[in-house]
Amino acid sequence: MRIEHAEIEALLNQTPIFGTLDPGKINRLAGLFIAATFQGGDTVFQIGDPSETMYIVCEGRVSLEVDHKGEPVSFSNLNRGDFFGEEALLEDDPRFYRAVARGEVVLLSLDVDNYLYINEELPGIEEMLEVSVHSRQLSIKLPLPWLSEDEFVHVISRRHPAILWARMFIPVAAGLVAALLAVLLLWLWLPGRPYGWVTLGIGVSIAILWSIWTYFDWRNDYFMLTNKRVVWIEKVSLIYDSRQEAPLRTIMSVGIQKSRIGSLFGYADVVVLTYVGTIRLRDLARAEILASLIESYWHRADDRNRREEAEVMDYKLRQKLGLPMNEEEATRAGITHRLNEVKPEHYKEPGFFEWLFSDFLRLRYELNGAITYRKHWFILVRMAWLPTVLMLLAIVAMVGRLGGALTFLPMTPALVGLSVFMFLDFIWIVYQYADWRNDIFQVTLEQILDIDRKPLGKIRRRSAPLENVLSIEYERRGFWGFLFNFGTVYISVGNTRLTFDYVYNPSEVQQDIFYRMGERLEQVRQFEIESERERISEWIASYHRKTSEFRNQDNDHPNEDDIDFIPDDF
């Protein structure tokens, strides 16, 4: 199949990795691509095949698959302007995924030899290819159950490794100090005593565990760009879980902010300004490349949204007029509606202990679109310190009595009494934990909730719609509040005020609420657009019906002037 040179140029301009090139280089590059046609079910390349060619989808749809437990699993569905097989232009390793045509597909292929002939004239392309290949590999490994069925990943990036090494400094330094202290104890201060070995074992163990925790904490923060949204995921292992996201259609601008240290080590923040708030993608390597890719996919999403709006309007008119529409057209017209749907996460009603200790000490987490906050650990410690101290004293007393101390206490009554006391004290500790755990603050897709629940007691629940929020303020008070970064967030709603007390990082809580307010306003705006679309389509359909009625009436009662002469012998 032959495709005109001008059409190939237009397609390359829509492809994110080539769209930044100037027209002259686009023109030269377009001459190196060759068109190929595949039928539905054909395999473009198989896992393990040699990497020799890159492809761009010109027409149709291509599915990328990997094998999981012997079964093919699709991880990406590509349409016009999307590319795949780009690893062939960088390396000669075997393919690590499979590409399958879904229906008749027209692809543009670029051979690696042709690319090497011109690659020195293509500034920045190699870096974009490296980002794309790394993202493809990472998207296969990461479990992403919250993606919708027709959503796939274009770009993934973690924070720069320099951030990891900076965070590793403290645990590594602590391990070195413990080792030095152990050497001093063994050779100078207390030779022949086991204290040095104990210090070495405890210090190095803590340093290793701390380093492992730091690595996983760094590893859990990453930026993601899908075909529908920009996402920033930030997790503190076992403590904090945050996911900020915005649909591509809501983006207003993309910028970069660098610090002096970031400029030195080669990382920067990418700032994405949207209708519903600002998302800051922190400490990313190759920030300029990532910002360029975000802009490219953002503009592509704008073009796609315009086409989908036209398809939805056409679908509405066909519905109103009773005209036939095939299943494929109806599916395409439903894309816009699916963009606003929240994919429900799997939920199972927990048992008592699972409920009590699930999300054990997490101060922030998300489930089914609701962000839940708890009071800071400092409040839990303040509530439970007395029963904890009494428990420790009871344990010391029991161990001492069993070890031969406290002989003035009878053995059996002392052990029984201490056991009963420890059991009651444990119940007290669990009660305090449950009381702390039950005081939660939530920001859902539609409202703000402040829930206070006493174990086995009353529940106090206050709520307010997001669109009614007038102002949001926060404050940190006292030495402990500034030391551990917790405070109170005040939400003014009409004449009342809701308070999120003692929440960790109150500035982030304030930002979450502002962001959810923007999302809610955008949802209301989309509803109004849908209502306006429905009203306009009804008007057009009504006009069409009326004109059809008038035309039929004219045909049933024609004017005499419009009747041709009829012969007498008719």
Structure description:
The chain is α+β, with helices and mostly antiparallel strands and about 575 residues long. It has five domains: about 1-140, Sandwich (Jelly Rolls), CATH 2.60.120; about 160-220; about 305-340, no CATH class; about 365-375 and about 440-540, PH-domain like; about 375-440. Helix content is about 45%, strand content about 25%. It has 15 helices and 21 strands. The chain has helices at about 5-15, 25-30, 110-120, 125-140, 160-190, 195-220, 260-265, 285-320, 325-335, 335-340, 350-355, 375-400, 410-440, 480-485, 505-555, and strands at about 35-40, 45, 55-70, 70-80, 85, 100-110, 155-160, 220-225, 230-235, 240-245, 250-255, 265-275, 275-285, 365, 370-375, 440-445, 445-455, 460-465, 470-475, 485-495, 495-505. The strands form five sheets. Strands 1, 2, 3, 4, 5 and 6 form a six-stranded antiparallel β-sheet that branches. A five-stranded antiparallel β-sheet has the order 14-15-16-17-18. The radius of gyration is 33 Å and the shape is globular. Mean pLDDT is about 80; it is low at about 330-350 and about 560-570.
List the helices and strands and how they pair.
Elements: H1 5-14, H2 23-30, E1 34-38, E2 43-45, E3 53-68, E4 71-78, E5 83-84, E6 98-111, H3 112-118, H4 125-141, E7 153-158, H5 161-189, H6 195-219, E8 222-226, E9 229-236, E10 240-247, E11 251-257, H7 260-265, E12 267-274, E13 277-285, H8 287-321, H9 327-333, H10 335-339, H11 352-357, E14 364-367, E15 370-374, H12 377-402, H13 411-438, E16 440-443, E17 447-453, E18 459-465, E19 469-475, H14 478-484, E20 486-493, E21 496-504, H15 506-556
Antiparallel strand pairs: 1-6, 2-6, 3-4, 3-5, 3-6, 7-8, 8-9, 9-10, 11-12, 12-13, 14-15, 15-16, 16-17, 17-18, 19-20, 20-21
